[in-house]
Automatic annotation (TrEMBL):
<dbReference type="InterPro" id="IPR043128">
    <property type="entry name" value="Rev_trsase/Diguanyl_cyclase"/>
</dbReference>
<feature type="transmembrane region" description="Helical">
    <location>
        <begin position="210"/>
        <end position="231"/>
    </location>
</feature>
<feature type="transmembrane region" description="Helical">
    <location>
        <begin position="123"/>
        <end position="143"/>
    </location>
</feature>
<dbReference type="InterPro" id="IPR050706">
    <property type="entry name" value="Cyclic-di-GMP_PDE-like"/>
</dbReference>
<keyword id="KW-0812">Transmembrane</keyword>
<dbReference type="Pfam" id="PF00563">
    <property type="entry name" value="EAL"/>
</dbReference>
<keyword id="KW-0472">Membrane</keyword>
<feature type="transmembrane region" description="Helical">
    <location>
        <begin position="59"/>
        <end position="78"/>
    </location>
</feature>
<dbReference type="InterPro" id="IPR035919">
    <property type="entry name" value="EAL_sf"/>
</dbReference>
<keyword id="KW-1133">Transmembrane helix</keyword>
<feature type="domain" description="GGDEF">
    <location>
        <begin position="309"/>
        <end position="442"/>
    </location>
</feature>
<feature type="transmembrane region" description="Helical">
    <location>
        <begin position="155"/>
        <end position="176"/>
    </location>
</feature>
<dbReference type="InterPro" id="IPR029787">
    <property type="entry name" value="Nucleotide_cyclase"/>
</dbReference>
<feature type="transmembrane region" description="Helical">
    <location>
        <begin position="182"/>
        <end position="203"/>
    </location>
</feature>
<dbReference type="InterPro" id="IPR001633">
    <property type="entry name" value="EAL_dom"/>
</dbReference>
<feature type="transmembrane region" description="Helical">
    <location>
        <begin position="243"/>
        <end position="261"/>
    </location>
</feature>
<dbReference type="InterPro" id="IPR000160">
    <property type="entry name" value="GGDEF_dom"/>
</dbReference>
Amino acid sequence: MKTPWAAALSSPVARALIRLPGRCVHIFVFFVLPVLVLVLPVVGLLGNSAPRSDPGSFHAIYMLEGGVLTLSLTLVLFATISRRWLYVLFAGWLIGNLRITALSMGWDLQWLGQDLPAESLLLIRKLTCAIYYLLTFALFIELFNNSLVRLQRPWLLRAGMLPGLVLLLAAPFLDYAQFTELMWWMATIGSMIAIVIIGHLLTVAYSSDILLYSAAMLIVIAAGAGVLDSLDAVFDLNFFSSAYIHIMATAISSALIALVITENDRAARTKAINALVTLSERDPLTDTLNQRGIEKHTQAALNALRRGEPFALCYVDLASLKTINDIYGYTAGDDVLKQACARINAKLGGNHYLGRIGGSELVLLLRNTSINEAHSLAHSNMEDLQTPPFHIGSRALQLKTSMGLVEIANPQLASGDAILAAARACRMARRGKPNQIAVHEYADQALDEQSQELQLLREFSSGFSPQNIFLAMQPILSLRDPLHAFDFEILLRMRDASGKLIPTSTVIAAAEEVGVVTLLDRWIVQTSLEWLHQHQANLANTRFVCMNLNGMSLNDPVFINDFFQLLRRYRHVARLLCIEITESIALKDMDNIQEFIAQLHSLGVRVALDDFGAGYTSFSYLKRLPADMLKIDGSFIQSMMAGPADIAIVEAIVALARNLGMKSIAEWVEDSTTLETLAKLGVDYVQGHTIAYPQSPEALTQSRCSADFIEDAATKAFVLEHLAGGK
């Protein structure tokens, strides 16, 4: 929460006040000084014949002193608000410059119309000279503070202030003649030190500000030494009086210093703005780019792509970080994240950038890098993230990581879409084993799917709508009774605006990304139950209808509640459903899955374990899950005919299912040879293109068994002659 003081400073009025010092300087430079220089001769102060005792002349002096004092007080006031020490120094220097001018011309007997004590006048003059020297040198240090940091001899700054301190200490003890002699010696030493410093600054950090300051000091010194009066006499100008020359020297030197301060203020604001811009594009925890920063650099890479400069994006998911946060706390997780970013940064070149766009998600932008070079760099980073282990105190931790690498070759792509393409590749890597890299080259079909997914993300982001989404149904053949069983699986399908079919994995990934997958599953369940209700008369031979539910839906209490309400509403057809649960989801939350299966069984709904054997298979957990069916992962079926070992694995799974009282279903059956082997192994059901491709719901209403859809001659002959007994 902001304090009242902070809130006051952040108000529009306060911000306007804070900018006033700079505006005061501008007004002084461009309005006050020209008016003073042009008007004062008119009022008689600076004419050749104007005596010092002339009341009009002294009235003009009071005006000059009052104007400078008012400006100085204004600068001090607003410097206090903005906390700019520079304006305080400038205000003091303006007054000192005016008093030095008055001293040079013999006008220093009064101050604002009041006579100064005669007994203190000489001391005041000596103190004025000493303080003016200190203010001048302090102003110099403050003006060029950033450049002076580079000074190789910092002791010169202390040496430059020393003459002023000597004068200040000597002022009360020396008479005026002695002090004047000492003052010229100290001024000479100080000038020489200033010349050395300015010369050094001009060689290492050339700046027009330094030249302006130097010019101002030269004018002050020239006026004080009488050089300007001598020049006026040599050239016999006689146009201006000595007083006017001194006033002009004061005005011009003040104007030059004011211009330096104005430029200094502008440079400080520019630096502050640049710092804020940089801060807005950096992640404060890891000191890498944030999402805004990485998108900005990605857009620059896309612009360079038009000139033929290739680049790639690598999306990094530090999957173990959430577990580390949960077990060891967020401090430990942050420490591991910083270590991981440091390891990655150590591998990056000058044209590569690392950004953090999520809690445990990073993006590598690899400019001017081919996909092969990017893959090599990603693989090297993957190895660095695995070994050595990350340390939290005395504990050594391994970090599981997934990477998605994409080659970007379309310069018309938006920067956000390019990053989403890499994120999609990373999701594909996560579906496999830990520490994998998924690579999508430009020619890869996955990039076409990515563009489809991006379009889906835009559609789903505005809310779920079933437009262009429909259901398909793939028949499942019973190897025990092929002519009298009509079982099938309900599948999700979607077409794009051109009518092209979008891969289901792309649709689901987009729905997961924007958080509408539970709405999608609810639509599938409700639409399926309504269709089963409407066509129940055509499904006399249907014993089960398989349906997939997303893991996110199974963990959503709202969806679970709606799901069981729909099952109760359509209980007369819900008994046909067979809900497929993947092995990985079942193992993640065994207790809740057991309760979920028990509720399904209470309503007569069957349960199938899907993709069995694809992941973490441990036969011991099967006895805790009272499933009705076991679907063998399609990858086993596809490779089954490669050798006897693969057949033995499938045979063992079939025997296991039988012994546990489950029916076995083989997926991805693509040819009659595989079908014959599965029949010999005792598989109960088969599903795949050799039986039937996914069909429209209308096509199913016109058939009586799954075998009606077989088109392959060899498959059909085997089914009729060997499975159906020649019927």
